Structure formats: C-alpha cells, structure tokens
Amino acid sequence: MHLVEKLNMHFRLLTLCVPVIIMLSSCGGNVTLNADAHIDSIAVYKSKRRMAVYSHNKLLKTYKIALGRQPKDHKQYEGDMRTPEGLYRIYDRNPNSTCYKNLGISYPNERDRTNAKKLGKSPGSNIKIHGLPNGEGYWGKLHTYRDWTYGCIAVTNEEMDELFDKVVIGSPICIMP
After folding, report:
1. For the chain, which end, N or C, has fewer CB atoms within 10 Å of the first or last residue's CB respectively?
2. Backbone angles phi, psi at 20, to 5 degrees
C-alpha cells in the first residue's frame, strides 16, 4: 500500500471514529437525581463549564454547561454575550420558552443596573438556565463543546427536565468566574 493510500485510509478511519469517541465521552458520569430531591442552592463555575446543585449544603450533582458566546468576565450590558457573575436568585420557572424550559435568574441586580447606566447601556435581562433551542434537542451533550448562548447557562433537555421541578424558587445561584 502506498503512503497516500495509507494516509487516506487512516483519515477515513479517524473521521468515522471521532464522532463515536465524542459521544462515548459525553455519556455517563453523573447519576440521576432522586425523584424527591430539592435543590436549594446552585454554584456555577464558568471557567470549568460546570454547574453544581446542592440540597442543605450537600452536593447532589454536577452538570457540564455551555455559556454565553463571550464567557470571560461579568456581563456589562445587553448584547455583550457574557454570562453574569455574582450572587443571584432563581425567581421563575417557564415551561414554554424559546429554549426547552427555563429557570429565571434574577439578573440584573442594582449593581448591574448602575454599571450599565454608567456605560450608557441597558443591562439586559432574561438570563436563564435552559435546555436546547426548541427542535434541536438532538444535539444532547455535544452542545457543550462550544459556548453558544446570549449569556444564559445551557444544559441538555433531559438535564433541564431533571432540574425544572427540583430547583426551589428563591434558591441562591452563585455564578463565579
């Protein structure tokens, strides 16, 4: 076999195997939350692309997440594609949104409004924990291979189902760099 033929064969094999490797690496890892679990606090680690959920200070589970397209630094104003940083609360649950279900995050706070005003901009709003865009749930965990939201925190639809009823409204969410 000539060198070019060998390289072509290796390339074809690689292009067939990479998707399988990616899918296998995204499977497993975390257990499903108990049906009676109540999540009363959430920690987001932006640099690690991880979200941890707690009940009475006990870690229940971690999730791999996607963030805003500009994930570094704190959200400054509407349209900057950043995910905010700081202490907020979960204030709402929406089963009918543009992305599969969502939990509302209380951004902006007074500090966020003041900082955006200094820039002559709106701070924005509608920061959520949500699933995938409606009709695109097939992406599953592959969606976490790049940051794609407008500033929200994204999980898979199955993970959103798991979180949706278990997160207690009013729970604190601490979003860290």
Report:
1. N
2. -65, -45
Residue 145 DSSP code: G
Give the domain ranges of the chain. Answer: 40-176
Residue with tokens 């901009």: 121
Cα–Cα distances in angstroms (integers) from residue 74 to residues 41, 60, 68, 118, 155, in the given order: 20, 27, 11, 15, 20
4: confidence class by pLDDT, cuts 50, 70, 90: very low
Q: Report residue 99 as tokens.
A: 């992305």
Query: Average pLDDT for residues 28-55, to the nearest whole number?
Result: 90
Contact status, residue 137 vs residue 157, Cβ threshold 8 Å: yes
Q: Assign 66 to helix, strand or coil.
A: strand
| 40-176 placed in CATH 3.60.130.10 | no
The HSE-up count of residue 161 (CA atoms within 13 Å, CB side) is: 7
Report pTM.
0.81
**106 φ, ψ (degrees, to nearest 5):** -75, 25
